[in-house]
Design brief:
Elements lengths: L2 E6 L5 H9 L4 E8 L2 H11 L3 E4 L1 H5 L6 E4 L6 H10 L3 E5 L6 H14 L3 E4 L6 H12 L4 E11 L16 H17 L4 E8 L5 E9 L5 E7 L1 E12 L2 E5 L9 E6 L2 E6 L5 H13 L9 H19 L5 E2 L1
Parallel strand pairs: 1-2, 1-4, 2-3, 4-5, 5-6, 7-10
Antiparallel strand pairs: 7-11, 8-9, 8-15, 9-10, 11-12, 12-13, 13-14
Helix pairs in contact: 1-8, 4-5, 5-9
The chain binds NADP nicotinamide-adenine-dinucleotide phosphate.
Length: 322
């Protein structure tokens, strides 16, 4: 039987999640919760979700919900993940789980105590494009020496949660976390970082550029911004070749370039819905059929790098151990 999911909030990002769930036999979305009962009722009708709950606690009390997808603003992720786990639900929590190592650990401790699964929703990691890219970075470009990662877009709405300090907004939290995830996937856990940021008057980073030093002298340069044009990029550069993905995070392109011996080749992979794949991965893990792709180790390491990048940026670019 498919896993029954509930959604916490009526966020914009729910749209591809609902579409991914609808395309799958492994799960179904049976309920959604929002702060405003009437608005959530209308939302549930619009998306064909059977039950609407007024308030997130009501969804956590719904005995028919086995797993919850949390699409709340960043600063609410850990508290609601813990509450959901303590209510006996499995949790897929939107990225980034947290910018604080202690909170990421707290969330996974709650999962372990409850005997439930928790996964950070880095949908790009589930894509066949990402898996092929990482494989070729390991065996088609010689010794990996440099990673370049970028993600930016222009945010025009000053009221957007991404600019809220209380809700853990910021360019690194919103889009730079993908660059961190990419650097870690390709080059391993960084040993030290140095970051520069431009912030709003409230202290929220709208632009950041950073260098990461990984074991073996591999370097990453990354940049992320909420005030630059739409840009996505991931490059892995080795001693004898390079890989270049121009759509590494959304993976709609289902292709990237391999440069070797002065030759440029396009590597194509099967098109896939990363949102569906992450839901199916966790649903299968809930049924004991497979392991979750991403767990405690990845999420805590991810928070550790984000914490170090903010510490460095807040100290004006100081070299900071991870
Ligand atoms: N994986 C991806 O591709 C991807 C893409 C975009 C965003 N995200 C992540 O998904 C999360 C949501 O992003 P989004 O852009 O979809 O957010 P959004 O549209 O602004 O929605 C956030 C939702 O949180 C609820 N909420 C509760 N307290 C709130 C508060 N104080 N202020 C604002 N909203 C509040 C609201 O739902 P109710 O009123 O219904 O309760 C609101 O609809 C973020 O963590 C983001 O990083 C992931």
């Amino acid at each position: 039987m498919g896993v029954s999911w509930g959604i916490i909030s009526t966020a914009n990002i729910n749209t591809p999640i609902i579409a991914g769930a609808r395309a799958s036999d492994a799960l179904e979305i049976v309920a959604v919760a929002g702060r405003d009962g009437a608005r959530t009722e209308a939302y549930a009708r619009e998306y064909g979700i059977p039950r609407a709950h007024a308030g997130y606690d009501a969804l956590l009390a719904d005995p028919d919900v086995e797993a919850v997808y949390i699409s709340l603003p960043n600063g609410m992720h850990v508290d609601w993940a813990v509450r959901a786990l303590q209510a006996g639900k499995h949790v897929l929590c939107e990225k980034p789980l947290s910018r604080r190592v202690a909170d990421a650990v707290r969330a996974f401790d709650a999962a372990d105590a409850a005997g439930r699964l928790l996964m950070e929703a880095f949908m790009w990691r589930h894509s066949p494009q990402t898996q092929r890219f990482a494989q070729l970075a390991g065996d088609a470009i010689g010794e990996l020496r440099l990673v370049r990662a970028a993600f930016s877009f222009p945010l025009s709405d000053p009221g957007n949660v991404r600019l809220s300090r209380e809700l853990d907004g910021g360019a690194l939290m919103d889009v730079g976390c993908y660059c961190v995830s990419g650097a870690r996937l390709l080059a391993g856990e960084p040993e030290a970082v140095s970051a520069q940021q431009v912030t709003t008057s409230e202290g929220v980073d709208v632009r950041m550029a950073a260098t990461l030093r990984h074991p073996g002298g591999v370097l990453t340069t990354l940049d992320c911004a909420l005030d630059l044009p739409n840009r996505s990029e991931l490059q892995a550069i080795g001693s004898s070749g390079a890989l270049w993905a121009r759509d590494p995070w959304h993976c709609h392109a289902a292709s990237f370039e391999l440069l070797r011996d002065e030759e440029r080749e396009t590597v194509t992979v099967a098109r896939a819905d990363s949102y569906r794949l992450e839901l199916e991965n966790l649903s299968a893990a809930i049924r004991g059929e497979s392991a979750p792709l991403l767990g405690r180790e990845d999420a805590v390491a991810q928070a550790r790098v984000i914490e170090a990048l903010y510490a460095s940026a807040d100290a004006g670019g100081a070299l900071t151990a991870v």
